[in-house]
Amino acid sequence: MNLKSLSSVGEPRTILMFSGGRDSTLAAIRLNKMKIPIKLVTITSRHLEGIDRVHMRLNELANHLPETTPWLHIEQPDELLTDMSFYDQTCLPCHHAYVVVSAAIAKTINASQMAFGYTTYQNDWPEQTPLAVSRLEHTLKRYGIELLLPVYDIASREMAIEELTVNGLSSESLEQKCLRQITNVALSEERLAQQVELWENAIDQSMRVINGIAIKLLSHKNIEDFR
What we know:
Mean pLDDT: 93
CATH class: Alpha Beta
Number of strands: 8
CATH architecture: 3-Layer(aba) Sandwich
CATH superfamily: HUPs
Order of helices and strands: EHEEHEHEHEHEHE
Low-confidence stretches: none
Number of domains: 1
Strand content: 5-15%
Largest sheet: 6 strands, mixed
Structural class: alpha/beta
């Protein structure tokens, strides 16, 4: 199954990278309340396990989102057609892949917005730092894509849990477990700046050759299928 099968499926939608965790779940809720139609995209790979937990979250969301809200399950591409040897052991390389996958889907369905569940309370993670967010926003603009961060104002885990509870959702983080990176790796300010600059340049290079990047679509369902 490949992305070409999506080219005639409905109207353009904002691509939301959806892990099933607290923050991406709230991002889906908030975007829906803003009347922004979304397409949920979940990445899986050899170092992520527990897709059944994501299915549990989708089952919860089936009562909150339009029944025709699409969910795509994508295999993380191994080759992004650029140098990736510079990365420290952080989540930046995976988020590089997430951006590329989202951009490829956006191009296929003629969408112009990409959303992530980044939050303020996790902005010490390299990819969610203000610096990284600013550089990603700048890079995507060059390719006609607007970056949306609907939950970036959430300042604590407790606030996220409270909002989930108010919406009748589980406060548990129903996402796949990463076998590589389970805790944040702190970088010095100088090292962070270096890594983010290289990350930005690598994403830009992948975007330039995005038609040559192989992206495998594992499944394509509507949210109503999880009821």
